[in-house]
Write a structure and sequence with these properties.
The chain has 75 residues and is α+β, with helices and mostly antiparallel strands. 21% of the residues lie in helices and 20% in strands. It has a three-stranded antiparallel β-sheet, with no helix packed on it. The model has no long low-confidence stretch (mean pLDDT 83).
């Protein structure tokens, strides 16, 4: 999972940030465009809930590049 920084070009809906999620087992990739980087967790929660209900399974682990984009700024 990675969140890429604001791009110079916006998406069709005017979003500047992108959240890329890759399934390590099936190598399926989701690219979700979001308005603010703070929205990444909420977007991931929604996608995770949909996928877990669809596949009747659960997410065992989440891997990131240990970037600061997913850390709480209060820490």
């Amino acid at each position: 999972m990675d969140l890429f920084a604001p791009s110079r070009t916006t998406s069709l809906r005017g979003n500047y940030y992108g959240l890329v999620i890759v399934d390590d087992f099936f190598r399926y990739t989701w690219t979700l465009f979001i308005v603010f980087n703070d929205d990444a967790f909420n977007v991931f929660k929604k996608l995770a809930k949909v996928l877990q209900n669809e596949k009747s399974s659960y997410i065992a682990a989440i891997k990131t590049n240990h970037g600061c984009e997913f850390q709480d700024e209060k820490i």
